[in-house]
Known about the structure:
globular, 56 strands, Neuraminidase, mainly beta
Amino acid sequence: xxxxxxxxxxxxxxxxxxxxxxxxxxxxxxxxxxxxxxxxxxxxxxxxxxxxxxxxxxxxxxxxxxxxxxxxxxxxxxxxxxxxxxxxxxxxxxxxxxxxxxxxxxxxxxxxxxxxxxxxxxxxxxxxxxxxxxxxxxxxxxxxxxxxxxxxxxxxxxxxxxxxxxxxxxxxxxxxxxxxxxxxxxxxxxxxxxxxxxxxxxxxxxxxxxxxxxxxxxxxxxxxxxxxxxxxxxxxxxxxxxxxxxxxxxxxxxxxxxxxxxxxxxxxxxxxxxxxxxxxxxxxxxxxxxxxxxxxxxxxxxxxxxxxxxxxxxxxxxxxxxxxxxxxxxxxxxxxxxxxxxxxxxxxxxxxxxxxxxxxxxxxxxxxxxxxxxxxxxxxxxxxxxxxxxxxxxxxxxxxxxxxxxxxxxxxxxxxxxxxxxxxxxxxxxxxxxxxxxxxxxxxxxxxxxxxxxxxxxxxxxxxxxxxxxxxxxxxxxxxxxxxxxxxxxxxxxxxxxxxxxxxxxxxxxxxxxxxxxxxxxxxxxxxxxxxxxxxxxxxxxxxxxxxxxxxxxxxxxxxxxxxxxxxxxxxxxxxxxxxxxxxxxxxxxxxxxxxxxxxxxxxxxxxxxxxxx
Length: 614
């Protein structure tokens, strides 16, 4: 019989505690717990929909192609349009229009090589997309609308079913030049859902065999093998005008009408359909794209009343990695409300100033991924300070020194020493947010003692030498979080409205602030924002004011379009600082109370450790 090492490639080892760096399924003996242990990746057990950024043009009965991170949406109504938009996984961009405006068209291919065909008014028109422009090519043999489709690119596609002026079973194959009629579906229908990345392997499901929808709506599913259609297991719920994505063996069906609007989603595994999590917005005549039953995109459609929508939702199936916090090396000085080089990394972070031990602090500490080291102090002790930059080049802005006044002082860090540079124009910096680098930063929000004393919406931009007042936040607030890549791209999050908590998020484009999706939990983040770009960020911890107020461990992740709750901090706290990214992040300091030295490291993936007796 083979030994354990011969079977798995490693020997059983002895380690006190959870052993770092072990392979999935590797066995070790935890001598501290007197237990045999192993680990495996911590992943989601169910899929879910999350919000993406809206399309630029609200519409329904549009076609879609591609995958979740690289998709096209084209055509639609009302009225009929030729508009085409490209999705990069975060936002939609208008690109060149189709030559023929229409709705109820179908599509196949990718966002750089696609085909669109048919549509309303009943047409056989076919257009080919090369990543830049649409070109008219040879027509379908049968003009129609509301059909199913599949295909890999603009040289290989399948069109099936549709309406003209009754339900059709006609199937046509595109070879890059011409359409050829091939074997029909078994059941003629229109408003059908479809999936397939090849013209030789497709799936058609649902639809209407004949009006009215109340009696004609179907759950029938058929599979195409390149020659014939075969009936396979039905959907659980009969639907029409539904969205579809994926392949003939791994597909997703979502939305539609039963005939009433539905948000239901079903997953196909090659054999049968299973109901999974619903769309957030019930709708039909929806645009669709996606690679499989674990990754899909729903956009546009009709959610009436009130009518058409531009809402985008992203599907992530079961098996997605689950992020988690773990303990890092402790600070040398416990403190809250300090500044950080929030564009730093998990293995190279900076923390400076703050409040701890009954007084404002001057300490500066540097983190190397394992431990904190004290380096040269900031010149002026202060708390509620804003910070930007990284471990080798940072900016410390404003803050509170004593009494009813704020500091306008700004200091610049060069990796060794702090130097005073030109002051802020305003006195609003206490508990304000900041984003950018040591040479290109914006400072926003905070509290201004005035007169009158109140929260402020002021924003100032730093060019490496001077500060300039620019356009204000839409919502004045203090104790807000924020981060971003530069003085032209930032996100402002949460804060205090004095009184009241804010869930507001605003995005800065270098000229103006725009309100985007709110946090799920209104709070004062106190700068616990990990991630220095506006499409991916974590908001960790915070304080919720009230009677009584309380601190939270909540962590939410920003996708560029919406916030999703993820794993909580291990140490509940507010007034903490942050560094790193949403893949490898870092938070440190803050108050529980009292002030804390706790540091936590975020990883976008984690493991489950089990004992053999579990």
